[in-house]
Amino acid sequence: MEWLTIGAFAKASRLSPKALRLYDDLDLLRPARVDPDTGYRYYTPAQLERARLVAWLRRLGMPLARIREVCALGPAAAAGEIRAYWARVEAETAVRRDLAAFLVDQLTAAPGKDTTMLELRYHAHSDRGLVRPHNQDTAYAGARLLAVADGFGPAGAPASGAAVQALRFLDTEEVPAGNVLDLLADAVHGAAEAVRDLAGGAGENGTTLTALLWTGSRLALVHIGDCRAYLLRDGALFRITHDHTVVQSMVDEGRLTSEEALSHPQRALLFKALTTGAPDLRLQDTAPGDRYLLCSDGLSRVVPDDTVRDLLTAAPSPDTAVRHLVTAANTAGGPDNVSCVVADVVERTV
Asked: pTM of the full predicted structure?
């Protein structure tokens, strides 16, 4: 058998001897032979392919624990894991990009610059639907806080209520724009703890949560699960959240098309919820005339986005929009609880 010294193997694999020793300690890339007297490591040419894969994944920034999992898979499964990892990197980068843009704006704003004073006009409603025996959704709208939560499990209704209740203190306090994401993250951590306490360790109980926090000029978004947030601007409808469902992760990985996902039997299976994963956090620019919609999947699963856009566009006020959206969901069969919050960004009247 041909043996390569650690130096020769490092040169061939483009990994440093120091990295090779670390990967040996982590059981990621074991040498083929270790001299019992000197402790010197030896490798074989057959190990170069795995070593190069490790090097490439490290260049992507993948954590070592994740690399170990990828290296244990076959080529097709490993490719799927890499696609999924990169999709999450891009999503996290988008959040940091928005924060960077906000900081640049804050630091470069001209002193004394005139700004239009804005406020929210809003309405919220939650409906049991036509099939479910109980309503496990919670919807809330206030001058600063908008929120929708969709509970699941025997204690789903109390779970969604506890999550939203834990955020309601934000509706009564002035929110400094500079640290709004930190403030919202801390509040959501408290909401998760409240749900855990209520569930008592029962994993079948939990909730999703999507909320917007108004700073007076921007909205801070927190999202986890499959409720959604939309923005209607200049007649166009934009979805500003990403579903945390198993089916959506399969779409992200290229294993399903968006069309196939609509009819997949597991389309409601969550990838993560409030107590089982980290939420998405980002800042959202606003402009007078913007209309925001937060909704549970009781709306989005049965009412197409084109119809949602048309109803939001035609409604003269948030309360009318909410009423028409809930009616549309129930007209489509009302298979689930449906909750909607609609808020308009308007110029403040003096």
From this structure: 0.68
Task: Read off the pLDDT of residues 50-83 as tens digits, 9 standing for 90 and up.
Answer: 888 888 888 888 887 788 888 888 989 999 989 9
pLDDT tens-digit map of 175-186 = 765 688 999 999
Distances (CA, A) of 322 to 110, 125, 219, 238, 339: 39, 7, 20, 17, 9
Work out the burial of residue 58: count CB atoms within 10 Å of its CB; fewer than 13 is exposed, 13-18 middle, 19 or more buried: middle
**10 Å Cβ neighbour count for 204?**
10
Cβ contacts of 119 within 8 Å, gap of 6 or more: 143, 216, 345, 346, 347, 348
Of 339, 335, 338, 340, give the one whose Cα is nearest residue 130.
335
Range 225-256 burial, b when 16+ CB lie within 10 A, else e: bbbbbbbbeeeebeebbbbbbebbbbbbbeeb
Contact assessment for residue 191 and residue 199, using Cβ atoms and an 8 Å cutoff:
no
Q: Which amino acid is at 268?
A: A
CA dist 314 and 67 (Å) reads 51
Q: Which helix (H) or strand (E) holds 139?
A: strand 137-141
Cβ-contact 223, 272 below 8 angstroms: no
